[in-house]
UniProtKB/TrEMBL annotation:
Enzyme class: transferase
GO terms for cellular component: cytoplasm
Domain of life (superkingdom): Bacteria
Record domain Lipoyl-binding: where: 3-78
Ranges annotated as biased composition (Low complexity): 86-96
Chain ranges of the Peripheral subunit-binding (PSBD) domain: 160-197
Signal peptide feature range: none
The protein's name: Dihydrolipoamide acetyltransferase component of pyruvate dehydrogenase complex
Needed cofactors: (R)-lipoate
E.C. numbers: 2.3.1.-
PANTHER family per record: DIHYDROLIPOAMIDE ACETYLTRANSFERASE COMPONENT OF PYRUVATE DEHYDROGENASE COMPLEX (PTHR43178), LIPOAMIDE ACYLTRANSFERASE COMPONENT OF BRANCHED-CHAIN ALPHA-KETO ACID DEHYDROGENASE COMPLEX, MITOCHONDRIAL (PTHR43178:SF5)
MF (Gene Ontology): acetyltransferase activity; lipoic acid binding
Length: 470
C-alpha cells in the first residue's frame, strides 16, 4: 500500500496558519479526489479544503479547534497503489500551491519536473492531471517522495515542490540547492528558506549585540506576561487580559506595520458640500424605488478620477537588487473597508471601472454580507488596487487612514453633517462631508493627489454634471 500525506496548503496572502473548524471525514472513510474533507478558518475567511488523493483516510493530523500550520501534515490517505520500482517504500508527502499561485501557474511545473506524473496539488476548483506518457524513465517527484529514497545518482535534484518556496529563495538571492530541507526525505519547506533569510541579518548583528547580552535580558523580563489578575511588571497595574495576537487581529497588525514601515505617505483633505448629491439620490429613489448608496456614488466618481490620475491606482515593488518598480494598472479593483465581528477586512470589487453606481452598490452589499458571515473567498479579499474607507459610519468627521499595503492610496469619507456654509455670498445650512486622501509620495507629488481629490470633491458637489460626463 502507499500512504500519502497532504500538507496544509498556503491559503493565500501569506497566511501561515489556519484554525481547523471541523473534519468532514473520519479515519477509515473512503475519499475521492476534490472531495471536501475539512473546513478551516483563516484570518480572512472560512475555507473548505478538498482532497488531492483518492483512497482510504488513514490519519487526521489535527482536531477541531486546533491551529494548523501551512506546510505541515494535514491528513494522510492510503491510496491502495504500489510505489514506483525505483522507490519501493511506503510513505509520501504532498505540499500544495497557494490559491493565487495556482491561479497564475495553472498546471505549470518547474523544468526539471515536467516529466513527472500528476502532482496531486489540488486546491478548491482544481483537479489533478498526469503528464504525457514518455518512454523516458520517471524520476521521483520532488514533493512526493518515498521513505526509502532511491540512490540512482549521487547528485539528486533538490526536493522542493512549492513554487512559492522557489520564488522566495530566488527573491532573496538564496541558492535553493544549498538549502537543507527539514521535510520528509529532505523536502525543502518555506520555513527552511525563511530561516536562511533571517540568519544573515542575525549573524551580522551578533558581534555588535554580543557585548550587550547581559543588559538585553532585562527588557525581556520586564515584558514577561503576568497572569490575569496579577500585577504588570512594567506599570504595576492589575492585568485584565493578556494574549498573543492571532487570526485576523494578527493579520491587521502585520498589515498596518508593513504599510507604515514601507510607504512614505502624505495626506490631503477637503470639506465637500454634498447637499446636491443627497437630493439627487432622494430623487432617484422616489422615481425608481431604490437608489445607489452614497458610497457607491462617490466610488463611481473616484474610479473616474483614477482614470485621470492613474498614478494613484498603482503599486511600488522592491526588486531583488533593491531598485523600485512602479506598476500602473489598466482598470480598478476597488477595495472597501468592512467592519466584521472578526475585525476589519477589505473586500474588493473586481473590475469596478466597468460598473455603474447601481452595480457598485449591489456589489458592496453582497461582499459586505459574505465578509461578515466569514464566507468571503481569497479572491474577494485580495487583489485590490485602490481602497475607500467610509469611517463616517463610526460618526467621526475625518481620519488620516493607513494605506492598504501594497496599494498607493486610500480615500476616506467622513460623516455627513449640517453646517453653516457660504453659498454665493450668503450663509446657508448645507450638508458637509470631509474627504481625505492618504497617498504614497513615491508614486506622485502633492499636485497629482490634490488634483484627484479635487476632481472627486467637485463631482460630489455637482453630481448631475459629473454623472453626465461619465
Amino acid at each position: 500500500m502507499a500512504i500519502k500525506t497532504f500538507l496544509l496548503p498556503d491559503l493565500g496572502e501569506g497566511l501561515t496558519e489556519a484554525e481547523l473548524v471541523r473534519w468532514m471525514i473520519a479515519e477509515g472513510d473512503a475519499v475521492a479526489i476534490d472531495q471536501p474533507i475539512a473546513e478551516v478558518e483563516t484570518a480572512k475567511s472560512l475555507v473548505e479544503i478538498p482532497s488531492p488523493f483518492e483512497g482510504t483516510v488513514s490519519t487526521l493530523h489535527g482536531e477541531a479547534g486546533q491551529m494548523m500550520l501551512v506546510d505541515e501534515p494535514f491528513f494522510s490517505v492510503n491510496t491502495g497503489g504500489e510505489d514506483e520500482p525505483a522507490a519501493p517504500a511506503a510513505e509520501a508527502s504532498e505540499g500544495a500551491l497557494s490559491y493565487r499561485e495556482e491561479e497564475l501557474a495553472g498546471t505549470q511545473v518547474p523544468a526539471e519536473e515536467e516529466e513527472d506524473e500528476g502532482s496531486g496539488n489540488v486546491l478548491i476548483g482544481y483537479g489533478t492531471s498526469a503528464a504525457k506518457k514518455t518512454s523516458r524513465r520517471r524520476r521521483p517527484r520532488a514533493g512526493i517522495t518515498t521513505a526509502a529514497a532511491s540512490s540512482e545518482t549521487s547528485t539528486q535534484a533538490v526536493r522542493v515542490i512549492n513554487p512559492l518556496v522557489r520564488k522566495l529563495a530566488r527573491e532573496n538571492n538564496i541558492d535553493i540547492h544549498q538549502v537543507k530541507g527539514t521535510g520528509p526525505d529532505g523536502l525543502v519547506l518555506r520555513g527552511d528558506v525563511e530561516a536562511l533569510i533571517g540568519a544573515a541579518p542575525a549573524a551580522a548583528a551578533a558581534p555588535v549585540a554580543a557585548p550587550a547580552a547581559p543588559a538585553a535580558a532585562a527588557p525581556a523580563a520586564a515584558v514577561e506576561p503576568a497572569a490575569v489578575g496579577g500585577a504588570d511588571k512594567r506599570t504595576g497595574l492589575p492585568v485584565a487580559s493578556s494574549q498573543v495576537l492571532s487570526g485576523v487581529r494578527k493579520t491587521i497588525a502585520n498589515a498596518m506595520s508593513t504599510s507604515r514601515r514601507e510607504i512614505p505617505e502624505a495626506t490631503v483633505w477637503v470639506d465637500v458640500d454634498v447637499t446636491k448629491l443627497l437630493k439627487l439620490r432622494t430623487k432617484i429613489k422616489e422615481a425608481e424605488g431604490q437608489a445607489p448608496s452614497i458610497m457607491a456614488l462617490i466610488s463611481r466618481f473616484a474610479v473616474a478620477g483614477l482614470q485621470r490620475f492613474p498614478e494613484l491606482n498603482s503599486r511600488i515593488d522592491v526588486e531583488a537588487d533593491g531598485s523600485l518598480r512602479h506598476t500602473l494598472f489598466n482598470g480598478v479593483n476597488l477595495g472597501f473597508a468592512a467592519q466584521t465581528d472578526r475585525g476589519l477586512v477589505v473586500p474588493n470589487v473586481r473590475d469596478a471601472h466597468k460598473l455603474n453606481a447601481k452595480e457598485l452598490s449591489a456589489e458592496f452589499a453582497r461582499l459586505a454580507s459574505v465578509a461578515r458571515e466569514g464566507k468571503a473567498g481569497v479572491t474577494d479579499l485580495s487583489g485590490s488596487t485602490f481602497t475607500i474607507n467610509n469611517y463616517g459610519v463610526f460618526n467621526v468627521d475625518g481620519s488620516a487612514a493607513i494605506i492598504n499595503y501594497p496599494e498607493a492610496a486610500i480615500l476616506g469619507l467622513g460623516r455627513i453633517v449640517e453646517k453653516p456654509w457660504v453659498v454665493n455670498g450668503k450663509i446657508k445650512v448645507r450638508s458637509i462631508c470631509e474627504l481625505t486622501l492618504s497617498f504614497d509620495h513615491r508614486v506622485c507629488d502633492g499636485g497629482t493627489a490634490a488634483g484627484f481629490l479635487r476632481y472627486v470633491a467637485d463631482a460630489m458637489t455637482d453630481p448631475k454634471s459629473a454623472l453626465a460626463s461619465l
